[in-house]
Amino acid sequence: MQSKKLFKEFLQYVTLNILGMIGLSCYILADTFFVSNGLGADGLTALNLAIPVYSLIHGCGLMLGMGGATKYSIFRGRKETANANHAFSNVLCLTLILSVLFFFAGIFLSEKITLILGADGNVFNMTRTYLQVILLFSPAFLANDVLICFVRNDGNPKLAMTAMLAGSAANIFLDYLFIFPMKLGILGAVLATGAAPAISICILSWHRISKQNHFHLQKLKFFPSLIRDTVSLGIPSLITEAASGIVMIVFNFIILGLLGNIGVAAYGIIANLSLVVISIYTGIAQGTQPIISRAYGCGDWTDIKKLLKYAVVTTLLLSACIFCVFFACTDSIVNLFNKEQNIRLQQTAASGMKLYFTAIPFAGFNIVLSTYFTSIERAVKAQTISLLRGFFIIIPMTFLLSRIWGITGVWLSFPITEIIVAVTGLILKYSEKTLRRK
What we know:
Layout: H1 3-77, H2 81-108, H3 110-116, H4 124-136, H5 138-153, H6 157-179, H7 185-204, H8 206-209, H9 224-259, H10 261-298, H11 301-328, H12 330-335, H13 343-356, H14 360-375, H15 379-392, H16 394-405, H17 407-430
Helix pairs in contact: 1-2, 1-4, 1-5, 1-6, 1-7, 1-9, 1-10, 1-11, 2-4, 2-5, 3-4, 4-7, 5-6, 5-7, 6-7, 9-10, 9-14, 9-15, 9-16, 10-11, 10-13, 10-14, 11-14, 13-17, 14-15, 14-17, 15-17, 16-17
């Protein structure tokens, strides 16, 4: 493909997907803002304790959506229409199975999960309410993630973006309505979050109604190799989301011991801002994925190299801009979530932000590189990057550095981890003597 045409397509997919992902990430950020202003530090702590469950659900949805849509694009690139439809049908079936499991966990296990997450007497009921309702809405979250990935890979990134933004806008409006005029508290926040994917799905349905879709349900027939490949390619997305939840649990546990609930509330501000920042990099990665997978299906390695270069350069430029904004406006940003004007909360969150967000260029590079490997069916390399940054380095690093430097060590564990993983990713990338199809 001509360079100008390829770059134009890259810009279209990435810009639309960044906007959509920012909108999607605003589910939780809006909750953070309205909960902090409506329910104070206890509400913010409860929200932060429950978010890991949301991350797990969202991660499972992305695992099926990204893995299935990647196979779908590759099959489409190879003109294998029947296999492309089988990829969609098998993913929908897996989505239904996971939906049932999460739904029943919400009915029967919400209290036990709340205890495991560390909620104490002051915030237990709020945490349990948020967690239970999130689990009951899990079918909508899972279906929305899967459909967004398939619609985007089916050549309609604009509709995918519109659906994500509409869902987020509805979430923000309903957050305000339920928490303030209707005074529903934490229940209102989670109901607003749960309504957002349902609205998004309604908009995504236009892709089928307008007969623009090329993926269709086939008579159900399980293909073990296809399911294995789908899950394998989607696991990095699951690891990234689930790991963020697990890391949040670890951070909460350590910070509770160091600073108590105020420390967890401060981390809640940082963690939720981080969700928005990471969503930008996810937008770059997922926006590039359909084009890379299509080029891979066609065997066009020249375009693949160009697309990876575009993605990395875009990541570094945006990282510089984001870091400058955070560094210059730290106090103002934290103040938005500190209605009670708690001086300790303000100081803890502000100092933590400046250290924590030094990681962003490296985190962005790692996300882009992991998705690149997924797009060309290098599942093991993608999983290696995701596992290192999600589990094997960040968790022991957090325990080690917190012992040495206390709360400063907690904040520094994230950038140090991402730097180590970025170096590892470069080694994995350039260890390939030749780029060739498997």
